[in-house]
Amino acid sequence: MGTTYVDVTIRNPADRQRNWTGRFLVDTGAFDSLMPRRRLQEIGLQPVGQRDYVLADGKSISLDITVAEIEFEGEIVGGTVVFGDEDAEPLPGVTALESGGFEVDPRGEELKRLPAVLLK
What we know:
By secondary structure, the chain is mainly beta. It has a single domain (5-113), classed as Acid Proteases (Cathepsin D, subunit A, domain 1), CATH 2.40.70. Helices cover 10% and strands 46% of the residues. It is built from two helices and eight strands, in the order βββαβββαββ. The strands form two sheets. Strands 1, 2, 3, 4, 5 and 6 form a six-stranded mixed β-sheet that branches. Strands 7-8 form a two-stranded antiparallel sheet. It is globular and about 35 Å long. The N and C termini lie far apart (29 Å).
């Protein structure tokens, strides 16, 4: 199985002209989306709170979060975005993927559109 990437645009919902587009690594273990702090600040997004997260190595940390518009594969969803370190690889969270009606096809290394978005 390989690595899956998707082009994602993160948009400031208060000023939709302010956005950033990049290649995001799809990680089904990431609950919320993540971007480098600088990129979020460049489009005018500031922290609205903090949330505790558990990293892959089991370490717990508290990180700043905000709410943004997330666009990929022709779908737009609203979601929580975590302020990552400067060298953080952008990740679309599984909540954004599922809200957009997608699942990951690890063999094809792509997103697979579900027949419908799950409501339950």
